[in-house]
């Protein structure tokens, strides 16, 4: 079981505590939707948090939308895990749109939502959003359509290649 003190961690996020770099709320099913929304809202002004995991917390589109607004403004979050919740394809696309604003997030895990089928429109939108993203290296999502799956993998590989080329270029310059 996850022994995270939710109230203490929320207060640290709200107060922009510099010691807080990672939050793990995974599998805390007793946390309310309102409390999860508060985490999403607090992320907006937090400039220290880099990793946020909230898999299997029964999060809904309401929670996803709170995170969407914050991600548009947050410049420090690198990894977001929202797997195994109740987030729809539409809200997933909104989260990806927000991630594209600052292009700081390198890992986004959103697989295993209930309902599990995103739909062709959502999958095509995810594909289109990834085409415009140059920083996402890992995307945890299951796509049913082969074309979207292939294109998403190509875009992620392109981003990894860009990251590798920058790293190699920086090493040569030293």
Please specify the SSE layout and strand pairing.
Layout: H1 6-14, E1 22-24, H2 33-43, E2 51-53, H3 61-73, E3 79-81, H4 89-102, E4 107-109, H5 120-131, E5 138-140, H6 146-172
Parallel strand pairs: 1-2, 2-3, 3-4, 4-5
Helix pairs in contact: 2-3, 3-4, 4-5, 5-6
Task: Give an overview of the whole structure.
The chain is an alpha/beta fold. Helices cover 49% and strands 9% of the residues. It contains six helices and five strands. Strands 1-2-3-4-5 form a five-stranded parallel β-sheet, with no helix packed on it. Strand 3, helix 4 and strand 4 form a beta-alpha-beta unit. Helix 2 packs parallel to helix 3, helix 4 runs parallel beside helix 5 and helix 5 runs parallel beside helix 6. The radius of gyration is 16 Å and the shape is globular. The model has no long low-confidence stretch (mean pLDDT 96).
